[in-house]
Amino acid sequence: MYQIKTMNQISPSGLARFGERYQISDDVNQPDGIIVRSASLHDVALDNSVKAIARAGAGVNNIPIPSCSEKGIVVFNTPGANANAVKELVFAGMLLSARKIYQGIAWTKNDTKGNIEQRVEKEKKKYAGSELMGKSIGIIGLGAIGIQVANLALKFGMDVYGYDPFISIDAAWNLSRSVKHAKSLTDIYKNCDYISIHVPLNDKTRYMINQEAINDMKNGVHLLNFARGELIDDQAVINAIQDGKVSTYVTDFPNDRLAALEQVITIPHLGASSSEAEENCVVKAVEELKDFLENGNITNSVNFPNVSLERSGGERIGVIHRNIPSMLAQIADTLAKNNVNIANMINKSKNDYAYTLIDLDNQIDDSQLANLQAVGGIIRVNVYPSLK
After folding, report:
1. Whose CA is closest to 146, among 197, 183, 107?
2. How many CA atoms lie within 13 A of 312 on its CB side?
3. What is the mean pLDDT of residues 90-97?
């Protein structure tokens, strides 16, 4: 029986996919795995029993990745599971920005003069906007969300530019051929009426939209940020709005300074807040946890490489270790000295860590397992019982 600890309110129908072999609760003492949404784990003492943590969402800033890696805890996320929800909100934000719908609604709600129906025709002139058809949009980051935004923008009749120097092969297959390939961010800045950013937040992308970047943009540009607040320098945007360089800024990450500005449309982090997105994220997180806990396969890990090996039916071990020379030789040599024969094996690395998944011809006992775990550089060894 596998033990799963939930750290938030998680969709019951999604959790049901674990099946009868799993005990799921928010008060499990020695969990094999944890499934979490927004709850912070930075100050949570993780039991040695924890082998994996699945984040039902894309961002993992609520999980202590470095310490998890050092303990051999595989951390999963669910990229793309909420892509449709975010894509739809991006276009809602773009339409609000283009047509001044937000400002017009605010006028009707806040009007205190009465007889509003008699003054609509006169007042509506203040909220005249522009159509999206024929306008240009630049998509920075062509992952699961960026691709959907780009493809939908084409259906709105927009001229679409895409920039992503690290686009995956799978992503490229899903991107329409009609999307123009921007060779640099400058191509996006100089050519686009709308710019939507869809990249992860890290040291290289933090405040990538700054004063220098905005200076290269077209006058009257519309900025959309449904990825992470710190990708865009708020003060640079505020300055650009005051100077007339930026027409509107639509962000899913409000703060007091931005909310006070009429030309900033602040949305309370609703990008993935749909029942469908929440369900999709939980289902994907459950599938990732199950495959790892039962078979040792890793899919969508943020701290260890993706590794998948079809099972032969016999016992299997998953060796989490440091990405240093001679590790494979030491693992194979230790198993051979302990009369454990390798039937099949796969090894991959990711930054400072690596993962070796091994199918065995015979079972490994406690003493043999202890000898393997004693090898320098090995962080953790998980055993997956025979399927026979």
Report:
1. 197
2. 14
3. 97
Which CATH superfamily includes the segment(s) 304-388?
Answer: ACT domain (3.30.70.260)
Half-sphere exposure of 260 (CA within 13 A, CB side): 7
Among 205, 168, 225, 212, smallest CA distance to 186 is for: 212
- Give pTM, 2 decimals: 0.82
Per-residue pLDDT of 317-344, as tens digits, reads 999 999 999 999 999 999 999 999 999 9
Q: Residues 356, 297: contact at Cβ < 8 Å?
A: no
Angle at 47 between CA 346 and CA 291, to 5 degrees: 35
Q: What angle do CA 121, 126, 130 make, to 5 degrees?
A: 100
- Residues paired with residue 197 on neighbouring β-strands, in sequence order: 140, 225
**pLDDT tens profile 112-155:** 777 888 888 888 888 899 999 999 999 999 999 999 999 999 99
The one-letter amino acid at 153: A
> What stretches of the chain show up as alpha helix (H) in DSSP?
12-15, 65-71, 83-99, 101-110, 116-123, 144-155, 169-174, 185-191, 211-215, 234-243, 256-259, 275-295, 327-337, 366-373
Cβ proximity of 226 and 90 under 8 Å: yes
Topology given in CATH for the domain delimited by 1-81+272-303 = Rossmann fold (3.40.50)
Exposed e or buried b for every residue in 89-98, given b needs 16+ CB within 10 A?
A: bbbebbbbbb
Residue ranges of the chain assigned to CATH 3.40.50.720 = 1-81+272-303, 83-266
pLDDT digits (tens, 9 = 90+) for 209-252: 999 999 999 999 999 999 999 999 999 999 999 999 999 999 99
CATH number of 83-266: 3.40.50.720
